[in-house]
Amino acid sequence: MTHDPRLILLDARDNVFVARTRLPAGEAIETGTGAATLDRDVPLAHKVARRAIAPGEKILKYGAPIGVATVAIAAGSHVHVQNMRSDYTPTYHLEDERKAGATQ
């Protein structure tokens, strides 16, 4: 079974898809393992859960961890700041560290 053509699977290890287009809430999608319903509007290029993701589980995109689920995420849910925490260091912290190193 294949997934919905409106979604991109970047790596077979990923637990999220990327939306190729804006998708409306309530829309049915195929995840490749079964049907799911979008829980809210999903903007272009945003993530959609490929399967259920448990709280504390890593969010995988490009086959790499990009964050962690802060709550249970159902298949078909929009994965964004409301249900995940980023693993990336904010760039302003990197700039602060660079400036601190220059003054020492």
TrEMBL record:
Transmembrane segment boundaries: none
Identification of the protein by name: UxaA family hydrolase
One family name in Pfam for this protein: SAF
InterPro entries linked to this entry: SAF, SAF_UxaA/GarD, UxaA_altronate/galactarate_dh
UniProt keyword Hydrolase, yes or no: yes
Keywords: Hydrolase, Lyase
Record keyword Methyltransferase present: no
Domain SAF: 14-85
GO MF: hydrolase activity
Domain of life: Bacteria
SMART domains in the cross-refs: SAF (SM00858)
